[in-house]
Specification:
With 155 residues, the protein is mainly alpha-helical. The protein is 63% helix and 5% strand. Strands 1-2-3 form a 3-stranded mixed sheet, with no helix packed on it. 9% of the residues are buried.
Amino acid sequence: MPTARSVQSPWTAEDLLRWAGLWVVGLVLLGVGWYQASGKGSFGAQVAPTDLAVAGAIVVCVANVVWILNGRRAVGRRMHALLAPIEQLTDLHLSARATAAGESNQNEVLVAGPGTRHYHRASCQLAAGRNWPALSGVDLAASDRTACGVCRPLA
């Protein structure tokens, strides 16, 4: 259930004031530059006011980029906070599964036929009804057999 805090804007009041302040500074620079350049007749006299207006436009663009990045960062923090419990549950599930697999691997009987390249679980469909001998850990380590792709023993 989302709380009242989780449905609010990703930006704080401080972010809003910073964004608005930079916008005001940028617009003032833009306006002053335009006003000073508009009364000049020669190109050389318009260069400095035009530079001032361009600086104002850059300040406004920087304000928007900072605004977007702050929002993106806030959304990322919230997403991480929401997904952290899911990740913890997944980790618990995987560790429980690994423990169960470790217990089942210790009790599992592995078989392989003479001249075969793969070893199987005794319950594997490919080994069922063949009366292959069980492999010991030493036999398995000494052979160059690989695990069956169907029953995936010791996986």
